[in-house]
Write a structure and sequence with these properties.
Blueprint: H1 14-26, H2 30-37, H3 41-48, H4 59-66, H5 70-73, H6 85-96, H7 99-120, E1 124-129, E2 134-135, E3 149-154, H8 157-161, E4 164-169, E5 182-187, E6 199-204, E7 207-214, E8 217-219, E9 236-245, H9 254-263
Amino acid sequence: MKTGKPVEKPTLPIVCERVRFYRERMGIEQKELARMIGVTGNAVSNWENGRGRPDLNLIPALCEALHITMYELFDVEDPTEQLTAGEQMHIEQYRELTPGHKTAVDQLMDTLVKVQIAENAPLIRRLTYYSRSLAAGFGDPTEFEDEGEPIWLYASREVDRADCVFTVNGNSMEPKFHNGDMVLVSRIPDAPDLQPGEIGAFITGNETYIKVYQEDGLHSLNPEYKPMHFNDADRVYLIGRVMGILDPEQVASEADVNKYQMLHPEDH
């Protein structure tokens, strides 16, 4: 029997609506979400159309895949995010302030947050990384025109004394330095500052080397390589003293670098 009343569209369960909403917000297809949580594409389609709901054992994986909490999935208030009585009082007092006083409070809070971050943030140093390798063997025939790029390292005694980082290429400095090692280098403006027996980074001709400096030339640690001798006409330029091998764990994380740059915007 016709009543003339429009047929009402069935209301979807909130969890079904939320699955579709957060999936589309992430920009992924139903089959991609299904693959991430180990179900079929039809299962996700059924959820979003109200023909079924995710099993309880799938909820943790579903929330992880959608980068949300269980509270967001079911659209309920997260009890951990409720304001305390003191926090609510501060908000109400803030709303009563004049615009000028609000600005003062904002600036004070910004300063206190930065101080707190600085107290907990590790010390970071910015050095220069040169993509051109230091040849521990045969030289790189290209010219040394690399301006370098920043590399952020956690502070240490050697890092604090260094200026730049190079990668070792070859095996002539084994067993101390291996192919692929990253080394810390302290720049020296004048070659005489490097003492015999010390290890340095050098440019000769169009090649860069990591070698042991001796008065008669540049030596390798690997006995299979002969010393490099030079005459008065040869130009040998000292890049700097090699301070040691850089531990990959000394490379600062992106999160710590972001904290440092927020506290020191001038040092980018």
